[in-house]
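> call design_seq(struct)
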């Protein structure tokens, strides 16, 4: 039997997306934001990504300064740092230092990559859609890189566990692949 879900909890029916660490700014002044409200919109070239973000966030302020951002994919081994980075504001704390993230230069954008992450999507912001309390940011991926031990066209979930936010202090991991044969 199915029960009604309060509309305030409805998003959890289609969550969880892969948790990301979004970097914005530049090598000299960067921020990290834990993030799970994203979706690919187009898988061709260019690959197009959409983020939903509150425009009051420090990450948004830095992102709008150069219209660039990086989506960094952390694994299960970074869960404490990922969660911690989502609990404090970059306006008050240098999250790279506080959580031990190593910034490294990106190939095509100003915001740094996080060296501890296993993959990175470097993006240029192309459009902002104002939804009042949140803005949808549309970005073109201009460079992508991933650890070849874990990613070969898709993640190997038996070797690399992406994090999936389940609310509060809970996360899930993807740990196996299922393949359908005709």
């Amino acid at each position: 039997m199915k029960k009604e879900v309060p509309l305030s909890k409805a998003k959890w029916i289609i969550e969880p997306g892969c948790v990301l660490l979004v970097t914005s700014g530049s090598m000299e002044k960067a921020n990290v934001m834990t993030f799970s409200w994203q979706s690919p919109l187009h898988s061709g070239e260019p690959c197009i990504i959409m983020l939903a973000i509150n425009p009051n966030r420090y990450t948004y302020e830095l992102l709008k300064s150069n219209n660039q951002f990086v989506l960094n994919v952390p694994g299960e081994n970074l869960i404490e740092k990922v969660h911690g980075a989502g609990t404090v504001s970059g306006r008050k704390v240098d999250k790279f230092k506080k959580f031990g993230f190593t910034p490294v230069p990106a190939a095509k954008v100003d915001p740094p990559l996080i060296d501890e992450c296993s993959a990175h999507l470097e993006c240029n912001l192309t459009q902002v859609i104002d939804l009042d309390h949140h803005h949808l940011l549309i970005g073109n991926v201009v460079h992508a890189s991933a650890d070849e031990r874990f990613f070969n066209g898709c993640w190997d979930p038996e070797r690399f566990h992406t994090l999936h936010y389940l609310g509060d202090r809970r996360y899930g991991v993807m740990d196996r692949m299922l393949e359908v044969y005709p």
